[in-house]
Amino acid sequence: MVSKKRLDFGFNGYQAPVIPKAPRSIRRRGPRKKLVEDNKFCAFELLAAVAGKLLEETESSASSNIAEGKFPVGICTDEREKMQLIDDKALKSESFDHGSCAESAFIPEVSAQEHNLLSNFKGLRQDENDCVAEHTSVHESYDLQENIDCDIKLGICEDKNSDGCKLGGSVSVGDSYDRKLESGSENEKNQIGYISMANVSTVKDPIGECVNTNVLINSESSVQLPVYRDSVHGALLQKHWNNVKLGIRDDDENSFGRKKTSAKIRPFRPQPRMGHRRIRKTMASKYWKAGPRLKDCELYNTSEGMNTFYRYRKSFYARERCQRAHLKKRKLSKHRYDHEHSNNSISNLPEKGMRGDKSSSAVILHRASRAPAAGKGHQKVKDPHVKFSIKSFKVPELYIEVPETATVGSLKRTVMEAVTAILGSGIRVGVVFQGKKVRDDHRTLQQAGISQSSNVDNLGFTLEPSFTHISPSATPKKLPVLLPCDEDQPLPRSPTTPMIDSGISNASVEPPIVTNLDNVNNNELISPSKTTDDAIMDGAGPDSKALVPVPPMDAEALAVVQANPKPKRTEISQRRTRRPFSVAEVEALVEAVEKLGTGRWRDVKMLAFENADHRTYVDLKDKWKTLVHTASISPQQRRGEPVPHELLDRVLSAHSYWSQHQSKQHGKHHNPVVVEPLKIEETTLAEGA
DNA sequence: TTTAGGG
DNA sequence: CCCTAAA
């Protein structure tokens, strides 16, 4: 009683950091894997985008080559390969889902769409078809890329023959039909382009349907919820955020009194396949080993940084569960999840700066300075350049709701989550010129009337969330071979997995990444440049490599790359976040054990940790185990938060005492509960080792 | 579900 | 902390 009270008090003050304590039962469920995969998918996009951008910069000079259709096939093929990876994943996850979730509804639909799409492109070469089709499946990346690229490209390519801007070195729909164009008429080209786009949107639909009710969807024309969004969007958004709120509430340790209810929620997910266990274990171990090295990380445990992340993630879980439960809109969840991850990953990219801006800091783009590339800068040199100085981005309005009793900290986190959610879900940049949104990405700045002379103040950029990521499922065909089972293949990828899973890498932007990389490499894992995923990183075809040296970024990007695509079957199974026992907890534990003895952890838990949902009786048992050990070693060998001698002494005493006075059921005498509790005073610290 | 232990 | 065999 006493102990409990005391403990409670302590805990309240402690305000346990919010870390998802995802119950194993939930965590363990397989589906997560899928999410991760998608996550990878997303990461691809992002990476591709970033890489593309880089390429572009480097490539601006070489862009002419691209324009000339220099590596059509190359690109296509390359891209196809990449896509296949994605597709593969997609397939896997799809089928996976099929298994247990009755949400496969879209699949057929999507397939159909796909067919249409393909049929529309009959005229094109097969490989082109593939390209296009695949692109479709990942159209989001285009969007993303476009947003990033157009900015620059438009200016650069302005005077190019093709009215469409080449999108960096990365493959894109544009490439597909642009090439076509080259051998066809302008008209034809446009048509193709049109078709392409149409299909893209068509394909999107399925998902849209799925997601719509929940989240704000971007249907190309309706997306901008930012400042310019309409009420409808607002509603959607709001809804979305409500979810967020729910998630938070649902998870989080702040709600100690909550009991395990939330933890009981069972996601509708397929059971993990055999073999995961093993894998997971392995990964866990590795991760664990890496753990100590993540000192910096540890700090986050109690700091906002880490917590935010976890919390964020958790909220996603929650939302996900919620959505699934109520809407079974798996797609959405998945995407969200992906986004979340990709977001985290991407945050490690050099582009960080840009991302940061989203949160409304100031950014400055000097297109002019980057446009002209060394050497063959032909006509570009003459192009007037427009300089943009983006002081800040307009951030989409966020609807946040928290109880009055929420702490400021939690409010911050909530906001953070909201922001992160948007960022993570894929941000799109919107251009608003003279109060109007400029949608046509293919228009040149000139055409849009944006010039240095024009009042720059009339130009604005907005950040638009795009929850539209198309589901990989949209692309059927492709390597259907390695279906689901593939997930059980631990082999090469496992090593990286832990990192990803650990969430640590994602959690904190800096140290972890580096660490991860090291670890990964040490694990002889990937040599960055070899990763299949790297291919994607390389962006467009073969040349890209040559074009893009990018040293620092590589490292970072790499980290990301590995973190995502690699572990196809990554199981999100996260190891519970480490939560060192505080002295107060130790004290409570000691007191409880003194009273109840060892072997009755369940009771100990109920007595002293009733409200600490994150402490299971197993945890307590383990802790006691370590405490006993700690107490028996020299203080110099101890690590972590030092436990007062007094407590350690009591630990030894209690341990010793209960060793003799079996407290266990079958124990000799008395009824368990009545066994006289250890009297600290009487049993001296005699036997201390 | 709990215990008890090994990893 | 995780994982499990047993109970």
From TrEMBL:
GO function term, MF aspect, one: telomeric DNA binding
Matching CDD domains: SANT_TRF
Keywords: DNA-binding, Nucleus
Domain HTH myb-type: 573-632
Protein name: Uncharacterized protein
Matching Pfam families: Myb_DNA-binding, Ubiquitin_TPR1
Organism phylogeny: Eukaryota, Viridiplantae, Streptophyta, Embryophyta, Tracheophyta
Subcellular localization(s) per the UniProt record: Nucleus
Naturally occurring in which organism (per UniProt): Handroanthus impetiginosus
The keyword Nucleus appears for this protein: yes
